[in-house]
Amino acid sequence: MIERHTLGNGMRVLAQGRPESLSTSVVVFVKTGSRNETEKNNGISHFLEHTVFKGTKKRVTYKEINRELDSLGARHDAFTGVEYTGYIIHASKDHFENVLDLLSDIVFEPTFPEKEISKERGTILQEISMYEDSPSDLVTKIFHNIVSEDAYVAQDVLGIESSVKSIRADEIGDYHRKQYTSNNSIIGCSGYLPEKYLDLIDKYFSKVHKGANILVKSKDNPLLEKKVALKTKDIEQANFSLGGVGLSKGHPDRYVSDLLLFILGGGMSSRLWTEVREKRGLAYVINAGSLSWSDCGYYEVYAGVSPDKAYEAIDLVKKELTTIKKDISIQELEMAKSHIIGVNTLSEENLMTLNFNNVKDELSAGGAISLQERTKNYEKVTIDDLKRIAENLFKPENMKLAAIGPFKDEEKFVKILGS
């Protein structure tokens, strides 16, 4: 059962206890990410996430923080997205209070030492370069830039080189004070929870200050008018992403979309894998999926292909997107249900994944729900539902394409997409 509480300072708490568990997982999500940034400070949410581990008022250096995490035998992680930033620690059940102490200090009491920020800037610039050198990552980023209707959603989570180089320590501190507030944060905990776990959470997090309500900005994306984005690069394997606007995280048809995209390209028995790879050998890898946020989303078919097979592969993907609107078998639907329900069931066994998904859904999908409720939502999907959503999503006039490879004629891709 998922329990919901609110501390005196407005901070929300989401708990799913398991008394038999030998471990405990605690996550703090702050509802801020790249869509809260400007063009000038793009990347500051991610920069901040890196630097909270460099020292706090209580733990002065990163060495003290790292030593304490190691001494707990804990697994920990941090991540930045479009709409939120998260920090998670998974440890033995005996360390529940230690985890609260660490997380509250790291997330809400960082000091952002100038020397450490200068060093971390170099690390982040290397991270940006790493993704720029990975065609599969880069083509998805380019596709994200042209398919997102909102310019702030389209921004890169890591930032760009010029913005990261210009972000100062005092700017990070100001951003932290405005965004990292009690009413803009949520705590999630799963696994073993002490009897008075809420009192312990209050002990460590009640001091977090309350801030002004943060309004999410919106701005038209000037790149939205592009049908095709092409990056010419002399590589042996071309990469492309083809897709269009999808559903938001909390859309009532999101369960239908999940099943549809799995049938299309979710596994080795999927239509795209069978038609593009197995039957014709056009691609080494091909898959379909989606990304979604609180008010928007998109679907994407990604493939890595030989450059001389790219046009043929793109044309075949388009045909499959058309065929699936009219022809879906009951066997495909039942297999997709069985797969997704099975994956969700296995995720319940991983406390970090369970905790992450609960809090993410609470923030962006209208509220976290139980495994049983999710299962029912998938089970009730019909073939008519799949055809309805396929007709709505896979409209040729709404499709976009990003491609990387030894290509120079963007207009040729435009014609293939429009044919």
N-to-C SSE string, H for helix and E for strand: EEEHHEEHHHHHHEHEEHHEEHHHHHEH
Backbone shape: globular
Distance between the termini: 51 Å
How many H/I helical runs? Answer: 17
Note the main sheet. 6 strands, mixed
| Protein structure class | alpha+beta
Q: Biggest sheet: strands side by side, in what order?
A: 1-2-6-3-5-4
Radius of gyration: 23 Å
- What's the mean pLDDT score? 95
Give an account of the 3D structure.
There is one protein chain. By secondary structure, the chain is of the alpha+beta class. The chain is about 45% helix and about 20% strand. It has 17 helices and eleven strands. The strands form two sheets. It has a six-stranded mixed beta sheet with strand order 1-2-6-3-5-4, sandwiched between helices. A hairpin with a 4-residue loop joins strand 4 (about 75-80) and strand 5 (about 85-90). Helix 1 (about 45-50) crosses helix 8 (about 170-180) and helix 10 (about 255-265) crosses helix 13.
